Amino acid sequence: MVRTHCPYCALQCGTTIEVSSREGVTVQPDEDFPVNAGRLCAKGWTAPQLLSASDRLTSPLLRDGSRAAHRRVSWPTALDDTVTRLRRIIDESGPDAVAVFGGGGLTNEKAYLLGKFARVALGTSQIDYNGRFCMSSAAAAGTAAFGTDRGLPFPVTDLAAADVVLLAGANVAETMPPLMQHLERADLIVIDPRCSATAERAALHLRPMPGTDLALALGLLHAAVTDGHVDRSYVARRTTGFEEAWRRAAEWWPERVERVTGVPVADQYVAVRMLAAAGRRYVLTGRGAEQHSKGTDTVAAYINLALALGMPGREGSGYGCLTGQGNGQGGREHGQKADQLPGYRKITDPAARAHVAGVWGVDPDELPGAGPSGYELLDSLGRPGGPRALLVFGSNPVVSAPDARRITARLAALDLLVVADFVPSETARMADAVLPVTQWAEEDGTMTNLEGRVLRRRRALDPPAEVRSDLWVLRELAVRLGQPPERFPAEPREVFAELRRASAGGVADYSGIDFDGLDAPVHWPSRSEGESTPRLFLDRFAHDDGRARFVAVTHRDAAELPDAAYPLHATTGRVLAHYQSGAQTRRVPELVAAAGDAFVEVHPETALRAKVHDGHLARVVSRRGATVARVRTVASLRTDTVFLPFHFPDAGRANSITNPALDPTSGMPEFKVCAARLEPVDEEPGVAVGGQL
């Protein structure tokens, strides 16, 4: 029996794995791990099935020309061919002609070594990762307000004693079901345009029109001030910037907010009074608030509300962000993000560059500067002056990127696309070189969950004979590019030891964490042996003066509004059975049986006007493209809104219509709202759309 963690979301639920010749790999929830306390969702229970997926990648593949079929080759052939082509591109066009795109599901060791590989072995500034599509707005807002970004600056278990929890844009009953056990005691205030599974359990459900979350947050702060709920003593002692933030929010009186959002004035006051009256209370944001072209400001407005009520930095209360991807927290701390070095250091900081360069044994002046954010990087591929080659680790942008048809065209324009994965994702299918790598149960490493708890992922079984770890792949590529082997260790324990040194003194300091001592997981920062910090900000915030910052923000419209041609708001999200782009979960028969088809939720009146019918196919069209999905009429949905899950490929790819308008601070695309219309499809029910691969 091996103790490890679920391969999916940022809860990182504790599990135990057994491997037997008779039953194969079986999983059980870890009763002693406090985050899930013996519970798993459908994805966690079925995770072992992915290990034996029928189309598992088991040997390297090369393609001779964009139209040729992949052929099996040896590792030396695949690596030599890849490096020969990379060298040619670098010699002709310079290091920035090669780009790297990582993932929020990579272990800390992989994320760390990937960033080092890009900046040292390739010498490129062109590196970012898919967490830019997930956590970037909350990270930017949290850093501005508190001086550091940790999704939950308190343990998940603290929520179990809460009296009231406000969930802004988070459907945890479907995306993180084991978390719901910690919310059973609390009265929930759910902000979501849909009556989601979480909203059905709410004491109060606020349903803003998509794209108006920021106006609602400003209205709640307005109500808190005018209703007399501001904790003036806390604001004076522990914060700065309240007056300017209030001047902006003063323009958003509840009646105006109702006109913009559709949320009744009375409900705005009820929400604030529920929070203000509670002894233990939390404000938590999710992707619904964050995935907007103004997502950073929206999160800032919810943080302003929490600060005005005196919540952050007090045990039993606070603000937190519900990180999505399995290592969404650790994945953004150790260097695969365009503007960061290990330890959550800024790549533009000379002291940070000198420290990390010293650990790496290179000249700080040799390190490249900050590169473009995720979507900007992907959109520049194959263009004049843009990268000619891309290496992808742990991501599937063909399905997950906004305006995905455009990004697919950019990938097709590359001279070289290299994908490391364990299944033939849609992106891997386009690749010139496909490198088969290990899965969660076949490798050691560390992950950092949504509460900043650093965990051990433990190897339970051997991978297929020709499968290698991502660390091994990076080391072999680096050596072929002229790096000394010792600079790129391939053993997770060695990489983590180096990560500890590189992160020492940084915001996300792991220097006190012992890889072999993680039977008792540690919350960062850990600056000395055995130190753990489960609750941040109890004495001071991370800014130099110890105070939190109110950030003055005001509402602005979504980047794209409905009109006569596109009269509806389209919004996207997740469903219980699937995870991210679906490349993993769409290979699990039980999950496909539960949700095997792309669908679109539509209010019955809206369906009637568009001449589409429940159970039949419809086309959802935006200014960028169209997707086909099966209609589900939902009477609780807003009549001006349609909802699509984003887990499906091909004709059912929801991101074919989403808007790549970017948040100017975080680089987050506006996944959560675009203008769209519905069209009937002349096809009978029963035809699958974008289901199992």
Please give a structural write-up:
The protein has 693 residues and is of the alpha/beta class. It has 22 helices and 30 strands. The strands form 8 sheets. It has a 7-stranded mixed beta sheet. Helix 5 packs across helix 13 (295-308) and helix 7 packs antiparallel against helix 10 (254-261). It is globular.
Roughly what is the average pLDDT, rounded to an integer? 96
Category from helices, strands and their pairing = alpha/beta
Helical content stands at 25-40%
Silhouette: globular
Q: How many helical stretches? A: 22
Q: How much of the polypeptide forms β-strand, as a percent range?
A: 15-25%
Q: Trace the largest sheet across and list its strands.
A: 5-4-18-17-16-6-7
Low-confidence stretches: none
Distance between the first and last residues' Cα = 32 Å
Assembly state (oligomeric): single chain
Q: For the report, how would you describe the main beta sheet?
A: 7 strands, mixed
Radius of gyration: 24 Å
Got a strand count? 30
